[in-house]
Amino acid sequence: MGLRDMANEHRGDPFGITSAAVVLVDVHGMIRHWSERAETLLGYPAADVLGRPAMSVLVSEESPASMMSRARRFEGCWEGLVTVRHRAGHPVELAVRACPLDAEQGSGWLAVACDVASSRQWELDQAVLRSLLEESPIGVGVLDTDLRLQWVNQVLAAMEGLPLHDGAEGTARIPQSGEVPPSVDWQARQVLMWGRVSPALEQVTPPAGMSRRGSHGHLRLRSSFPLRDPYGKTLGVCHTAVEFNAEDRARERLALVNEAAQRIGTTLDLDRTVQELAEVLVPQLADFAAIDLFQGVLAAKDLSSGPISGGTLQRAAHLSIREEIPEAVVPIGEPTGYPPKSPQRRCLTTGRPIRDPVLNPTTWWLAGDQQRLAKLVRLGVHTHLVVPLRARGVTMGVVTLLRWDNPDPFDEEDLLLVEELVARAAVCVDNARRFVREHNAALALQTSLLPPDLPDHCAVEVAYRYLPTDAEAGVGGDWFDVIPLSGARVALVVGDVVGHGIHAAASMGRLRAAVQTLADLDLTPDELLAHVDDLVLRLAEEAEAATDNPMVVGATCVYAVYDPISRKLNVARAGHPTPAIAHLSEPVELPDIPAGPPLGLGGLPFESAEIELEEGSVVALYTDGLIEASDRDVDVGFERLCFALAHPDRPLEEICDTMVRILLPDHPRDDVAFLIARTRALTPDRVASWEVPADPQAVHETREKVACQLAAWGLEDVAFTTELIVSELVTNAITHASGPIGLRLIHERTLICEVSDTSNTSPHLRRALSTDEGGRGLFLVAQVAQRWGTRYTATGKTIWAEQQLPGTGCR
């Protein structure tokens, strides 16, 4: 039987209560329990043996005294091998453990047994594990899923220099610190991410004081693999390491190249990538290494191909065998200021590496750089090695290596090795540069598409969260908006475009712009969604007509309009989850809003519903990624949402944090956006309304009423312009409309004047000719009002005009 078969068949102790034959004998020697495993081993059903004397059933080939003489004590029990007779008549050899059970009338016995082959196989398995951990030269450690080191054997502890707790015994030794060596951490992290990782070969640095060239040191082979339970759940990571001597320089160099492949480019972070290159070069190849990049690389700009003679170099990373880094002339992030004839500038001009001795006649270029000259003389640097950092035909910078502690100058083999390492690193640096450029472009697109900051509005207090699933790019197809409307109302919008990334973000931007434009027309929620549905249909047709990479265009949306005067919320949704409403005195409600079809289907109607809210209620609009994050169980998501919205009197930012913590995992599988709004109410003393007779003589009386109301509000400064607006709008309604005419003044942070009538004809702003007797009313209104417009109602239309009130706010 192989080790794999052993692992599959012997997952537990054969004497375990679930795998062994279990027999319970009372103080009188009668069998009181007979397990199914006992029936399997000996052939006797429980019904045939329960209540019978144990010795009459377990007929042995030898006497009890002989069996006891060969048994041994085992943690208060007796353990040994016995041969009993099967019900069919043939002998069965068993490994038995028996424990006495004390009782008032005497002692009974609990016996567990297994076949001898299973017992011996288990002992062999345990011996293999003990030898692997205690006797073999393989270092073994175990990390949990949070990458904390749980225990190590003595070999790995010695390799990594890990201190253990005093008095630690056995093979499983818990380290004093949870810190994990970087190489172990990197491999374990890759295992948790991808499920597997290739073995890594690295060079072990010789002890201090030993010549690097004179001693080849050791090589260390590392390997990591996941630890899983019988059901496939990952419990942690097992890390192994084994060392062997490096017999020649070629093997050392191979190990270094292998280490570079494992360590350089672990992330798309530019600073981290160049630092990883420095860590590979020092101290294995150089006593000091500096990586200088062009500012265009750090700024993620496009670069020209070929060698470069000009351009500003900036120090991106450096590393030394000395902690204080005495060789560095400039700090990280500063321009390097290399002289024109320096090896670095010559290397960039020619595009070829330069290997120069230092402090001899060829070092004439240092005469113009006394600071560098003084440092090189003081340290005793004897060799320069400068290599261009190039990838895909683009020169991005230069790498400088120095030696002084290592007595051997750089040779041709060193040059070839450094070129190989720098070329590998250059590809990683270029990937990081390209990623930063694309990331910046994506963020710029997202910033232009989403509101940079939500407007402060008297009708609601708002907060939000936007969490795209593509966290690195930072873009997605979800969006939200808060749109001020006429009459002190506000529109709350949350939408979700199918897909993720740039394409979804671009479609989202078009839909958001369309919703904003349609909202300015003061359409009802159901009418607005019908128009947006038409737009999505056109976008889908354009996408289908694309010859390359056609996109699927579809979206859901919820659109709500809140009126702080009536305290009513008018909501319509298109294939979107219903809003949640947290009342102050009642449980959180998920109102039954008619579920319209998703945007882009076409031909189906949308319906809206009106809900009356008390002041201080919290309304939550969200995308389905919020409620489906709980293992795709929507019911659980709604329950958690209601729990998170409980106690709506809390600060909105605190409620947002609670929703993220309770509803979302660390890495959501879908974009998530949600908007929460606490409603405010406009008190009756801030609203004044009158019904105006359809008589030109009523204009004067109406102006007087308006003047009195403005005086009561302390707004005498805008009385003249307000009376002008009222006069022109009421006159237009009397002249061109019919039916009852209504006038309403709303005093919030702006002064809003509204005139309503039963006509559906919209007035138009025009420039009157000098010979015209009229036509100047709306022109005058547009000059004195901050903004004006028309909205249509079920009974006619309302023309409104707003005036800014300096120094006023929501009350």
Give an overview in words.
33% of the residues lie in helices and 28% in strands. By secondary structure, the protein is of the alpha+beta class. The strands form six sheets. A six-stranded antiparallel sheet has the order 2-1-6-5-4-3. Strands 18, 19, 20, 21, 23 and 24 form a six-stranded mixed sheet that branches. A five-stranded antiparallel sheet has the order 8-7-11-10-9. Helix 20 (698-713) runs antiparallel to helix 21 (719-736). The protein is flat. The termini are far apart.
Q: What kind of sheet is the major sheet?
A: 6 strands, antiparallel
| Helical coverage, percent range | 25-40%
Mean pLDDT: 81
Task: Give the strand order of the largest sheet, numbering strands 1, 2, ... along the chain.
Answer: 2-1-6-5-4-3
Name the structural class. Answer: alpha+beta
Low-confidence stretches: 1-10, 209-216, 768-775
Taking the alpha carbons of the first and last residues, their distance comes to 83 Å
Strand content: 25-35%
Radius of gyration based on Cα positions: 41 Å
Gross morphology is: flat
Question: How many separate helices?
Answer: 22
Number of strands: 31
Topology:
Blueprint: H1 3-9, E1 21-25, E2 31-34, H2 36-42, H3 46-49, H4 54-57, H5 64-70, E3 72-74, E4 77-85, E5 91-103, E6 106-115, H6 116-134, E7 139-144, E8 149-152, H7 154-160, H8 182-194, E9 200-204, E10 218-228, E11 234-245, H9 249-263, H10 270-281, E12 288-294, H11 295-298, E13 313-320, H12 343-350, E14 354-357, H13 370-379, E15 383-391, E16 394-403, H14 412-449, E17 460-467, E18 476-484, E19 490-500, H15 501-520, H16 525-545, E20 555-563, E21 568-574, E22 580-582, E23 595-596, E24 608-612, E25 618-622, H17 624-627, H18 634-645, H19 652-663, E26 672-679, E27 687-692, H20 698-713, H21 719-736, E28 741-747, E29 750-757, H22 777-784, E30 787-793, E31 796-804
Parallel strand pairs: 21-23
Antiparallel strand pairs: 1-2, 1-6, 3-4, 4-5, 5-6, 7-8, 7-11, 9-10, 10-11, 12-13, 12-16, 14-15, 15-16, 17-26, 18-19, 19-20, 20-21, 21-24, 22-25, 25-26, 27-28, 28-29, 29-31, 30-31
Helix pairs in contact: 9-14, 10-14, 14-15, 15-16, 18-19, 20-21, 21-22
